[in-house]
């Protein structure tokens, strides 16, 4: 039987976006093994109800847990906004982390004025999880959250820079800064948004800090694994990465390569069915 330390870390997202988090995790934890599950058949989560997203999250998590994992990372912000506590309770004592708390801590650390704008999906904004996490980390912070649904489609289409991306970004963001010129931090509360950073930078100018949760989440995972004595150390074989998707391995590979920051082909992607067996 495998020692817990050598078990993989499970990561799930609604699709390819969470590969931005996997990328940061692999950089921070190069010796670890990862199983990444993208629930592409049910993407997007961001426009669905909290109840549906929770149900999908439980199924995704169960699918990973059944493969034998030592740690669960919810890479999807929308899923993190509803599922962290329910999944912690369901799978205890296995540790579970979402991206919202680490992202909020990073956003608060970056902001001098305490005026923070969060860009996220409709579901994440509606649930208020970022607003709560930021208020917890920095009680005097002033937060405004904006749903930017079209950014997901733009990122998936690969239209991440240039006139169209910037025009849409202006439409979502300009009013936030008009209403509150003291905003000094833009917190990217969605897996897809980091790939739009160049267009966002062109729109907000040089003085606003852009923060995303991928790197801080990777640091938090490292810290918790280390604290629990669960780091994969002393292994000679470098960490493996398994990629699974519930639909469309070809599209997953084509679009996902941009998010992972390295090219991979559809042959690397295992098509899986995560519906519960009864
Ligand atoms: N992964 C989602 C998130 O981070 C974005 C895509 C979706 O709506 O499913 O909120």
Model description:
The chain has eleven helices and ten strands. The chain is of the alpha/beta class. It has two domains: 152 residues, Rossmann fold (3-Layer(aba) Sandwich); 113 residues, Rossmann fold (3-Layer(aba) Sandwich). The chain has a six-stranded parallel sheet with strand order 4-3-1-2-9-10, sandwiched between helices. Helix 9 links the parallel strand 7 and strand 8. Helix 4 crosses helix 10. The longest helix has 17 residues. The two termini are 27 Å apart. D-glutamic acid binds next to helix 3.
Summary tags:
278 residues; alpha/beta; Rossmann fold; six-stranded parallel β-sheet; four-stranded parallel β-sheet
């Amino acid at each position: 039987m495998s020692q817990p330390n050598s078990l993989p870390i499970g990561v799930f997202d609604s699709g390819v976006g969470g590969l931005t988090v996997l990328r940061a995790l692999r950089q921070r934890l190069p010796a670890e093994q990862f199983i990444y599950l993208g629930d592409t058949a049910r993407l997007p989560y961001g426009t669905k109800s909290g109840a549906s997203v929770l149900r999908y999250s439980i199924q995704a998590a169960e699918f990973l847990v059944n493969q034998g994992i030592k740690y669960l990372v919810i890479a999807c912000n929308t899923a993190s906004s509803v599922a962290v506590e329910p999944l912690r309770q369901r799978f205890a004592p296995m540790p579970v982390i979402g991206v919202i708390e680490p992202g909020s801590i990073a956003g608060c650390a970056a902001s001098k004025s305490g005026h923070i704008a969060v860009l996220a999906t409709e579901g994440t904004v509606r649930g208020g999880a970022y607003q709560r996490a930021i208020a917890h980390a920095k009680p005097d912070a002033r937060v405004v959250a904006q749903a930017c649904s079209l950014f997901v489609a733009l990122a998936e289409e690969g239209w991440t820079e240039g006139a169209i991306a910037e025009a849409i970004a202006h439409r979502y963001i300009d009013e936030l800064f008009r209403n509150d010129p003291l905003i000094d931090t833009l917190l990217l509360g969605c897996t897809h948004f980091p790939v739009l950073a160049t267009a966002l930078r062109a729109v907000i100018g040089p003085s606003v800090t852009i923060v995303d949760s991928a790197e801080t989440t990777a640091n938090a995972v490292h810290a918790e694994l280390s604290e629990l004595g669960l780091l994969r150390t002393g292994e000679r074989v470098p960490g493996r990465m398994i990629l699974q998707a519930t639909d469309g391995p070809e599209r997953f590979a084509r679009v996902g390569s941009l998010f992972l920051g390295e090219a991979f082909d559809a042959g690397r992607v295992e098509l899986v069915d995560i519906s519960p067996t009864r």
